[in-house]
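Data deposition worksheet. Section B asks for the primary sequence of the deposited chain exactly as it was used as input, without tags or linkers unless they were present during the calculation. Section C holds the resulting structure in token form. Section D is free text for depositor observations; keep each observation to a single sentence. Incomplete worksheets are returned to the depositor.
Section A, Depositor: J.P.
Section B:
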Amino acid sequence: QVQLVESGGGLVQPGGSLRLSCAASTSGRSISVIGWYRQAPGKERELVARMFSSSDTNYADSVKGRFTISRDNAENMVYLQMNSLKPEDTAVYYCYARTRLTVRDYWGQGTQVTVSS
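Section C:
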């Protein structure tokens, strides 16, 4: 069982920045993929960014050049630095992890990000 706890959401003006954090209850060595998804009202959950155990990363086209995913294996943390935020980035952001051996998916409870003036 892996627990993921997000923090760092909030209200920010367009053009502003936020950093989301996700604390994982297990060592990074047991996780093959960790990342962030988001879900806006009335829309499906979508991938924002993810990092593989190789440190390769994927980003949604809509956030490339603005968002950066990073990982601190020593602290079992993953971060999402979000810059140049737009109103369309408004959503609940979920931390996600897939375990290496059991290949199970885990989700955090989500953190709200609202971009509005």
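Section D:
The chain has a mean pLDDT of 95.
The first strand starts at residue 4 and ends at 7.
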